């Protein structure tokens, strides 16, 4: 079964092609350069850029797979959450394509896409599992008892993990996105030189909190600590915080498989820390951790039994919770 997946939730246009759960092609047009002068994503510019490039990306993935468009069995697109103007481009394009081809259209939740990206190289994994989405806008820990069923165990109380990396990087005078920049600088620093404490260490639940960490980075800078040392300690503490919450969730639920997804899943320090916890870990392969279209097609593939084809009248939704229970 050939599934085309489209994601235009924010500032990347992602189009991917999946055959029977295997990623065959994946193209992402990044808008980072377009928005960097403005210090953030400009929604109207993002929408216009999606419109400009989406058709070419669809043609490109079909060309890479040597597939005629009429051979597609299903078209999937992100319904939300995201910037409404940006979402509408990919969502409407996908509906139009499905309608023209007389093929089913499936609406996918963006976080569902992130979650199933972790299964791209682990097709044998089955629920139940834990899924941590640590991205630019979310830090959500789900229990997934069955395909397409999501119980929210905990989420961030303030900033998302990726957002904390981005904001701290900015304070340290580094570029955007901040995650990879901090990871690079941290390798040259000594975390022991900067006193930052792990957030929410005594909680019973599964909440995350990163905004205090960002403030602590600002204070450490004021005190004259070296940026590399601050980066090293920030990363160590952020990673430790995530590991502690995840460890508690694994103990409480008894689950032993953990999917880690979203841009922060690319962080090598996080991967190394989680490796030592005795869990079976699934990470997205390179290129599938951040926003892309293949993850949307993968989500449609894995949840196909549950979600029948979506109604073409379904609207895009900028605010859309994922938890089903
Ligand atoms: P959302 O899905 O919540 O709307 P998003 O799609 O913008 O957010 P992603 O594209 O999944 O987020 O991830 C981008 C985030 O991941 C950025 O905040 C970036 O700094 C962070 N990130 C990327 N690489 C790394 C890394 N190596 N270490 C830490 N963080 C990273
Ligand atoms: Fe995302």
Model description:
With 325 residues, the protein is of the alpha/beta class. The protein folds into 2 domains: 2-114 and 288-303, Nucleotidyltransferase, domain 5 (2-Layer Sandwich), CATH 3.30.420; 127-282, ATPase, nucleotide binding domain (Nucleotidyltransferase, domain 5), CATH 3.30.420. It has 10 helices and 10 strands. The chain has helices spanning 32-35, 43-65, 84-101, 110-117, 161-171, 178-186, 211-222, 227-253, 268-275, 294-302, and strands spanning 2-7, 12-19, 22-30, 74-80, 105-109, 129-134, 139-144, 151-155, 257-261, 280-282. Strands 3-2-1-4-5 form a 5-stranded mixed sheet, sandwiched between helices. A 5-stranded mixed sheet has the order 8-7-6-9-10, sandwiched between helices. A hairpin with a 4-residue loop joins β6 and β7. The chain is globular and about 60 Å long. It starts with a strand and ends in a 23-residue tail after the last helix. The relative contact order is 0.19. The structure holds adenosine-5'-triphosphate and fe (iii) ion. The site of adenosine-5'-triphosphate (ATP) has 23 residues, from α4, α5 and α6.
Keywords summarizing the entry:
325 residues, alpha/beta, Nucleotidyltransferase, domain 5, 2 domains, five-stranded mixed beta sheet, 10 helices, globular, binds adenosine-5'-triphosphate, binds fe (iii) ion, cytoplasm, tRNA N(6)-L-threonylcarbamoyladenine synthase activity, acyltransferase
Provide the fold topology.
Elements: E1 2-7, E2 12-19, E3 22-30, H1 32-35, H2 43-65, E4 74-80, H3 84-101, E5 105-109, H4 110-117, E6 129-134, E7 139-144, E8 151-155, H5 161-171, H6 178-186, H7 211-222, H8 227-253, E9 257-261, H9 268-275, E10 280-282, H10 294-302
Parallel strand pairs: 1-4, 4-5, 6-9, 9-10
Antiparallel strand pairs: 1-2, 2-3, 6-7, 7-8
Helix pairs in contact: 2-3, 4-10, 5-6, 5-7, 5-8, 6-8, 7-8, 8-9
The protein binds adenosine-5'-triphosphate and fe (iii) ion.
Fe (iii) ion is lined by residues 110, 114, 135, 291.
